[in-house]
Amino acid sequence: TTLIFATNNQNKVEEIRAVMGALFEIITLKEAGIDIDIPEPHDTLEANASEKSQTIHNLTGQNCFSEDTGLEIDALNGEPGVKSARYAGDGRDFQKNIDKVLEKLQGKTNRAARFRTVISLILDNKEYLFEGVCEGHILEDQRGSHGFGYDPVFVPTGSAASFAEMTMAEKNKYSHRKKAVAKLIGFLNAR
Ligand code: ITT
């Protein structure tokens, strides 16, 4: 099975290839010669994931998948959630998003949070959704330099290290993305 991965985020490509790259051929947008900024206009992860995979499927007619991920913080009523990529504005400086989270959580004792990933697969013109959740908490100060996005402030339940203090293989033992991908693999293998 060959699948186009509808994402502009190279970190996602690397994490997902590490889990399923030996089993399935994954083609990036770049490798497929597609250069577009996929919109994420909706207010749920599901709808945004669907938009991304539908966009690429309409363009190519090929089997493909996408994923949308959000960090949901209980003390912030689930924010940044679906707005995770642009929480502190549209800039490319991701540090601003981290700073905004830490600032809003200052003095709060409830640090509970979770990452949620929704994968949208379009296979033979039908869509399927798969979800993965990783529970954890937000640190007072960021730690570590691996990974991407909010990894330096997120510690998954069962670990003492932040995602950014882990190798990719370690992160993939806990991660939301890995859990969603495991469901995708199970589905593809069961066909
Ligand atoms: P797409 O092209 O796939 O849409 P994106 O980077 O815009 O890539 P999202 O819309 O899913 O991805 O944005 C979610 C944001 O949350 C994104 O800015 C990431 O930096 C962050 N994020 C996603 N997965 C993460 C992870 O595993 N660890 C830390 N931060 C993550």
Automatic annotation (TrEMBL):
PANTHER family: INOSINE TRIPHOSPHATE PYROPHOSPHATASE, INOSINE TRIPHOSPHATE PYROPHOSPHATASE/HAM1 PROTEIN. It catalyses: ITP + H2O = IMP + diphosphate + H(+); XTP + H2O = XMP + diphosphate + H(+); dITP + H2O = dIMP + diphosphate + H(+). The keyword Nuclease does not apply. Keywords: Hydrolase, Magnesium, Metal-binding, Nucleotide metabolism, Nucleotide-binding. Pyrophosphatase that catalyzes the hydrolysis of nucleoside triphosphates to their monophosphate derivatives, with a high preference for the non-canonical purine nucleotides XTP (xanthosine triphosphate), dITP (deoxyinosine triphosphate) and ITP. Seems to function as a house-cleaning enzyme that removes non-canonical purine nucleotides from the nucleotide pool, thus preventing their incorporation into DNA/RNA and avoiding chromosomal lesions. Belongs to the HAM1 NTPase family. Homodimer. Its EC number is 3.6.1.66. Mg(2+) binds at D68. The active site is at D68 (proton acceptor). Its cofactor is Mg(2+). Binds 1 Mg(2+) ion per subunit. This is dITP/XTP pyrophosphatase. Gene3D superfamilies: 3.90.950.10. The keyword Hydrolase applies. Substrate binds at T7, N8, N9, Q10, N11, K12, T69, F148, G149, Y150, D151, K171, H176, R177. The gene is rdgB. It comes from Sediminibacterium roseum.
